[in-house]
Inverse folding.
């Protein structure tokens, strides 16, 4: 976790360029520095001085505006992008299964 946010390159939407969806605005630099400080602290709390593959615990922090307002979903993690994509896919499956159980 360097001084630069991991999500510095915005991936364009696949809906013809409409940027009005929830969490689809460019990176919010105002929150990026705060999130980096939080991420460094969380990494230290859960992993001590371990780095890279020596760490025991991974985490992801997502920050987004409430009330469905157009805005950005800022994201930071101590895992690599491939790990986080797999984790998020699995988590969405769990959320959707749980929602089906409730309905």
């Amino acid at each position: 976790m360097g001084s630069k946010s991991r999500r510095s390159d915005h991936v364009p939407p696949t809906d013809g360029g409409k940027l009005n969806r929830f969490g689809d605005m460019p990176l919010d630099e105002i929150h990026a520095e705060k999130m980096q400080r939080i991420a460094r602290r969380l990494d230290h709390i859960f992993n001590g001085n371990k780095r890279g593959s020596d760490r025991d615990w991974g985490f992801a922090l997502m920050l987004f505006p409430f009330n469905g307002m157009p805005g950005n979903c800022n994201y930071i993690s101590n895992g690599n992008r491939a790990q986080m994509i797999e984790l998020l896919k699995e988590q969405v499956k769990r959320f959707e299964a749980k929602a089906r159980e409730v309905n």
